[in-house]
Amino acid sequence: MQSSRAITLLLVVVMLTAGCLGGGGGAVSDAMADAEAGAAGGDGAGPGADGPDLTNPETVLRDAGSFTVSWRYTGVDESGVRTEVHHDYYADLDAERSLSVTSSSRDGQSDGGSSEQFVADGTTYIRTGSADAATYGSYPGTADVVGTAIGLSQARAYGTNDDMANRGTETFDGVTVTRYELTEASSQLIQAGSAATSGSAGVAEITDFHYVVLVDENGVSRYESWSFTGRTQEGQQVSGEWEYALTGVGSTTVDDPEWLAAARAATA
């Protein structure tokens, strides 16, 4: 019987490509039905599947006292426009300080979507806009940077364990991790399922799909990467890649940002 987790991955990919291309909202339920029909009698996990036993990282990170989370998206749409989005979270829980940085660009030019949020001494400071036209704000209170940061990890959210194969150990950020990759059978299932919906407006046929997760000895996902290439019904090439990285566990420090004085002056 086909793995339901592979179906979940298929739906995620269909929705992501539909969102990037600006359509395809009605194709998701059809994608599930077509993928299930096409894979009937098969095992979506495939031979060699031995997925990670993931744990909730919140307790580990709070015990460690500090960490850094980075999330990256890079995509090229059917018009050849390259979009990049970055989210970085630096947290020193022991010192009750954190810094969140968000930026985005199109074809290498900032699209004005940059912002930073700094928390220290029970106050949250915010900076938005470009360096030449920054806007500042502040308010008493703090943000749940732990929940926000680890929420960017998709490994536990989509529960794809049965579709992942153990590829051995390696070192990431100075820590021994086990590498898991989406099985070839599940990758092919995703491609076949996307082909069934590629006739819908705004939905691309996935021609290649990869998913990697690096897990440490505590069962915490340290790195994740999703990547795909595809083509629209008109034959235009599209691609996308998402990366999540958890680093500096127990060693991250958070300094005052350069704009803090300006923020304090603007909100005094």
From TrEMBL:
Residues 103-115 have a biased composition (Low complexity). Residues 100-119 are annotated as: Disordered. InterPro entries: DUF7537. Gene3D superfamilies: 2.50.20.20. This is Lipoprotein. Pfam families: DUF7537 (PF24381). It comes from Haloplanus aerogenes. The lineage of its organism: Archaea, Methanobacteriati, Methanobacteriota, Stenosarchaea group, Halobacteria. Signal peptide: none annotated. Transmembrane segments: none annotated.
